Amino acid sequence: MRVATQKLTSQFPLPLLGNNSESKLPESDFNQICQLIIQQLTALLPTVAIWTVYHDLTKGKRHLVAEYFSENLCSVQVTPACLPSYFVSGQSNLDFTSLQAETWWREDFPVLKITELAASDLYHSYVCRISKQSVTTAEYLLICTSKLLSDEQQNLLLNNAQILSNYLAMYRERSHQQQEIAALSQALGQAEHQLRNPLALINLYAENLRLALPQGDLQEQASLIRQTVDELSAKLTDLLYRGQQANLNFRKHNLQTIIGECIKTLQHLLKEKELKINYPEKPVYVTVDNWQMKQVFDNLLSNAIHFSPRGGTITCNWYAYSNEVLIEICDRGSGIVPEELKQIFKPYYSRRLGGTGLGLAIAQKIILAHQGNLWAENLPEGGAQFSFTLPFKHRK
After folding, report:
1. Which of 51, 118, 273, 302 is the least crowded, having the fewest Cβ atoms under 10 Å away?
2. Which residues are bridge partners to 250 per DSSP?
3. How many structural domains comprise the chain?
4. Distance CA 62, CA 206 (A)
5. PANTHER family in the record, alphabetically (predicted)?
6. Burial group, residue 211, by CB count within 10 angstroms (0-12, 13-18, 19+)
């Protein structure tokens, strides 16, 4: 028994992602899920052949993962409109041509429903659609069996198709996030071009003023302008280049120290609204880029402060597991409108009056670069909660 995978050309190619390597989602993760699901079904059902077809979003091509019972793989020409005819089942040499050509496919096939196909007198075929896209494309799990499947066996097939469908939805969502992050990176590159020269000009004029002014407060103010511009320029460089995973400066840091430093910079906002931030007394150490992680906490805490009612409390918790830590930041504001939950991490989308719409997008970019995940949800008792995970050790 062997597992075979092959790339297929789609009749409706999906748009390719950007050239930035960070924008490309590894397709191997979902491919591995397909293999595990197929191997499990093969072990539990009287399988003659089984395969699943989905779209590899990073390459704009269809992808096939299959399991069969022959040790010999037939080599044939792959055409855009059909699947390769390489299934052979031992001595019976069953013919799968009609199934592989997908002439049986109908656009009205329901999602996550088992449909039996009248394909052959030698075997029984069952198909389950695992997604419904806007374009006319077939993504499905198909199994050929030597016996009719019982209701219990069909439920087993359906449950595994549901798992596959859920993972496919996660795969697509992550790919969309990567596309948005690629767009954000492009926007940041444009910002550098627009800001770098004005900052250099301010720096030059501030230095000229410092040299021309007598010693005293005015000269110190000119020096402060220069120092501030240098810091802005350095942060702009960090934002543009250190967000890439290869350039992150990973060290072991205590989350207590990071959040404590962020709270100090936000004290004026906390005093203005009479807010307090609670966080655990127990330290937890993670391998992160210190400056980047400060940006994440700063963006999430600033957001929580803005939406918290006066005199309230913002709660930060973390929970350590075997390989990762879960961090939660909760406010007691009005929460997030359900329609906005899918929008808030998109670049330039902001719920705050006068906001740039980049804070949460940048936070998500940093967390993904740290091999974690960031999401938002409403709390049953009111308010919003932003959660993200971080691995204890960076995986190279």
Report:
1. 118
2. 289
3. 2
4. 58
5. PHOSPHATE REGULON SENSOR PROTEIN PHOR
6. exposed
